[in-house]
Amino acid sequence: MQPKTFQKIDRFARDLPAEVHATVYDGSKSTSEKRYDVLWRDFPETADVLRETAGQIKQHTLEHLDQYLEQAEKSLTANGAQVHFAGDGDRANQIALELMQKHGAKKLVKSKSMVTEETHLVPFLEKNGIECVETDLGEFIVQIDNDHPSHIVKPIMHKNRRQIARSFEREGLGAYNDDPETITRRARVHLRKKYFEADVAVTGANFVSAESGRIVLVTNEGNARFCMAATKLHIAIVGIEKLVPRDKDLGLFLNLIGRSGTGQQLTVYTQFIAGPKRAEQPDGPEEMHVIFVDNKRTDVLASECREILRCIRCGACLNVCPVYRQASGHAYRSVYPGPVGAVLSPLLAADKFPELADLPKASSLCGACNEVCPVNIPIPDLLLRLRDKGKREGAKNAAAGTPPMGMYAMMASQPSAWKAAMKIGYAVNVTPQAMMNVVPAAQAWTSVRQLPKWRGGKFRDWMKKKESE
Amino acid sequence: MQTAMSDDRTQIFSRIKTALAPLPQRAALPNYARELPICRAHPEFSELWELFSHKAKQVNGTPLVGLATLGSWLHEKKQTHGYCDRALAERLRAMPEFEGITLETEFDRGRFDDFAFGITLAAGVIAETGSLILKDESTSARLGALAPWTHAAIVDPATIYPDTVTALENLGSDPSVIWATGPSKTADVEGILIEGVHGPGVQIVCLDA
């Protein structure tokens, strides 16, 4: 009702079709409940110890990142992988393209990777004549619909089966049928051909062990495994924050990521990749490349919000978040939605920070995101730090929906003005609400809130009486 | 490309060092008990295989005991043509339960739809999670364990690891270690669980007792 004072994210929530809202709400709520049940069933006394320890390990790794990155580079090289570094997304894309061109590769199958969403790898490669196919079912549907993922783990949480069935019909994958099993089987048949035709597999990495150079990939569908069985060239594109010190630490992270993301004790496929295939193995990549990508992560590391780099992309904070459930992922207008996105996206946006400065405000600071986080990121604290940054930098989006506080600041710093205001305030009790809505500065609050009765100055009176007693 | 890339490397390391320099102190690597990530919330079993079976069934895996049982299972499901690891084929062909079942020892990717099942050798199983372990060293063909609708992994009773922590300690030097926990699955469409997305719709672990 108040477009003028709405934050951008509020407008998305307001305009979200009821059907999508219901899908997102039910999907995130049920996943969140499952996460809670499974984690606390399996670790009734130590669930929080697990989360806290995992958080400490990640924080330690980040604060020694130069050391661990160098160690990982050595271990990966020893495993027979070739390591590349890319300062930004464009460099990462360019390196990947050059590798493919060197191998005469024309067709690519890809498993889900958030960092390649950041770098816009697929549109870049397509422009350069490479056929790219997303193989995760959700990402495949996002791709054919020319859409964007709305969730880190469940990219099509915002779509229902009827929409998907229409897309499949349009793409010639069969007559309209909205049975989820039929949809899945059709994708299986279609993508199978793509795997066998492809020259190259592009994956991300969920974890990289600095100690052994093992890249760990987790999926449920088995698509990353298929990519790694059918093709001859493997390119892993990995954010530099994905490191963990030792293989032993993977025990904690693997036990947390499945439970946190989807309420599973372990994801169906957990792959530990340490270089190209063995010579006697007929299937799989003969060459492995790892591209470590910075893309503003070192800026985040230098910021007051470096804890956000602990994130293992499980999506638990999205599922539990009351704002995400109302607004859905596209409201965050960036690769990373939800509470993690409200911190990470404005930071990764760098000089475009002002455009996303409303995201840190889209929170009641209820703290649920922190409680569910498998690496215990203090997201509410980070949101406050970013609100502060937005205000200090005068970002317009950081102020949308907030009345100017200049008058308050003046009164609060001058006792006489304050005393006078306490008296004048009683006028509010006899002013009709409709009249107050006329004052633009007050509108942002008064239009959606009932004011309590003004009782200004009562505390001072009470205090004075107490003192004289 | 080489120069540009090494520039990127130098820059990233220098940016990390600059970012971390102002920190008054760095977070220490926590010490934690080896047992911390091990889940013990399950009924007591006297045998690890029983715990494995219990966990595998929870994720719709199919634990079987004895190769003969596998032969009967395949007959029952009318799956009579598939891939089999060369190291197992002779033994299975000699068994009466495998009579009438054709075992090919090469996985021909040109005829990937011809294989109803793939029989491979597991490198072990994890009791705590109901997972089977596949390694390049012991899995004769990655595709044979992945493309057919039914995958049957044969496991040696000496390679049942109690938990994920022990399994991690035994990753060895193999370039490809896979833990597969139940059949391939998705819940991407409206959160409804569907099995058999890209990988097997039936995941059998057969104890070679």
TrEMBL record, chain A:
The keyword Aminoacyl-tRNA synthetase does not apply. It comes from Cerasicoccus arenae. One of its GO terms (molecular function) is metal ion binding. It comes from the Bacteria. Keywords: 4Fe-4S, Electron transport, Iron, Iron-sulfur, Metal-binding, Repeat, Transport. Residues 301-323 form the 4Fe-4S ferredoxin-type domain. InterPro entries: 4Fe4S_Fe-S-bd (IPR017896), 4Fe4S_Fe_S_CS (IPR017900), FTHF_cligase-like_sf (IPR024185), Helical_ferredxn (IPR009051), LUD_dom (IPR003741), LutB/LldF (IPR004452), LutB_C (IPR024569), NagB/RpiA_transferase-like (IPR037171). This is Lactate utilization protein B. GO terms for biological process: lactate metabolic process. Pfam families: Fer4_8 (PF13183), LUD_dom (PF02589), LutB_C (PF11870).
From TrEMBL, chain B:
InterPro entries: FTHF_cligase-like_sf, LUD_dom, NagB/RpiA_transferase-like. Gene3D superfamilies: NagB/RpiA/CoA transferase-like. Residues 102-202 form the LUD domain. SUPFAM superfamilies: NagB/RpiA/CoA transferase-like (SSF100950). PANTHER family: LACTATE UTILIZATION PROTEIN C (PTHR43682). This is LUD domain-containing protein.
